[in-house]
Design a protein that fits this description.
Blueprint (H helix, E strand, L loop, with lengths): L1 E6 L12 H8 L4 E6 L12 E2 L9 E2 L1 H11 L12 E10 L2 H8 L3 E6 L4 E2 L1 H6 L3 E4 L9 H12 L9 H5 L18 E2 L2 E2 L9 H19 L11 H15 L3 H10 L1
Parallel strand pairs: 1-2, 1-6, 4-7, 5-6, 5-8
Antiparallel strand pairs: 3-4, 9-10
Length: 262
C-alpha cells in the first residue's frame, strides 16, 4: 500500500513515520509513505497557500490552486486503467471515522490524504478532487495532520503482514462491533489482584466463551450504542436483558434504609 500526505507541514510527519508501526510496515516493504508540501505548488515569492474567504468571515482558507496542482503531481503516474485512488480530506465536517471505514480503505493499494488547515479549504477542492471527507471526532483541531496519522495507523494495521499476527487485528475493539475483552499477562497474582481463573484453565472453548461474554458486557457498560448493530445470538440478547433488569431493579437494602430514616 502507498499513502500520500498533502500538507503545509511535512516535518510534522517525520518522527511518527520513522517509528513504531509505521516504520515496521515500511521496513517490511508492505507500506510506503510520501509527504508533499502544498506550499511547493504556489507561484508567488511568499509561497501563499491561503487567502481571505469571499463574502467575509473569520479566518483564512486554503487556496484551490496549490492543492489541485499538488494532487495532480502526486497522481501523475496513475494510469487510466488503474483502480480508483481514494482522496481523503480530513475535516470536522466529514463522516465519523470507524473501523469499518478502515477496513474499506485497507482494500486499496493506494490512498491520498489531504490535511486541511486554517479556517477550512476552498470548496472546489471538496467538489472536484475529494472522494471522501473524514472526521476523527466531533471536535476541532488546528490541522488535519494528527487525524491523518490516526487514519493511516488504523488502516495499515489491517494490511496483511504488518502486525505480528493477523489475529491481533481480528481481536481489536470495534472489529466485530463490540469492545475488546479484558486481557491479562504475568504475574497471575499481582498485589492480591488475580487473573480470572478461566484464563488459566487451558480450556480454549471456555476462554473463548468468557471473552465473548466480557466483550458484550463491557460494550453494554461503556458503549451501549454499539449494541444496536452488533451481531448477537439469542442467548447473548437474553444476557443483556438480564443485565438491564438487574440495573433497573431497586436496591432493597438502600430503600429500607431510606424508609427507616423517614
Amino acid at each position: 500500500m502507498r499513502i500520500d500526505f498533502l500538507t503545509l507541514f511535512p516535518r510534522f510527519f517525520e518522527s511518527p513515520l520513522s517509528d513504531a508501526i509505521f516504520q515496521r510496515a515500511r521496513e517490511k516493504g508492505l507500506v510506503s509513505f510520501n509527504t508533499y508540501n502544498i506550499r511547493d505548488y504556489t507561484h508567488d515569492r511568499h509561497r501563499t497557500a491561503d487567502d481571505y474567504p469571499f463574502g467575509g468571515g473569520a479566518g483564512m482558507l486554503l487556496k484551490p490552486e496549490p492543492v489541485f496542482e499538488c494532487l495532480e503531481d502526486v497522481l501523475k503516474d496513475k494510469r487510466q486503467n488503474d483502480e480508483p485512488v481514494p482522496v481523503i480530506l480530513m475535516t470536522p465536517q466529514g463522516k465519523l471515522f470507524s473501523q469499518s471505514i478502515a477496513f474499506k480503505l485497507a482494500e486499496h493499494k493506494r490512498m491520498v490524504i489531504i490535511c486541511g488547515h486554517y479556517e477550512g479549504i476552498d470548496d472546489r477542492v471538496r467538489e472536484h478532487l475529494v472522494t471522501e471527507e473524514i472526521s476523527i471526532g466531533d471536535y476541532v483541531l488546528s490541522g488535519g495532520e494528527i487525524p491523518a496519522l490516526v487514519v493511516a495507523d488504523a488502516v495499515i494495521r489491517l494490511v496483511p503482514g504488518v502486525l505480528g499476527s493477523n489475529e491481533s487485528a481480528a481481536g481489536d475493539s470495534h472489529t466485530d462491533g463490540l469492545l475488546e475483552y479484558p486481557q491479562y499477562t504475568r504475574p497471575a497474582d499481582f498485589r492480591g489482584w488475580k487473573v480470572p481463573e478461566v484464563l488459566l484453565s487451558g480450556n480454549h472453548a471456555r476462554v473463548a466463551a468468557w471473552r465473548r461474554e466480557q466483550s458484550i458486557l463491557k460494550t453494554a457498560h461503556v458503549r451501549p450504542d454499539l449494541l444496536a448493530n452488533a451481531s448477537l445470538t439469542a442467548a447473548e440478547k437474553r444476557l443483556l436483558e438480564r443485565l438491564a433488569e438487574e440495573q433497573s431493579a431497586p436496591d432493597i437494602s438502600r430503600t429500607g434504609e431510606r424508609h427507616a430514616a423517614n
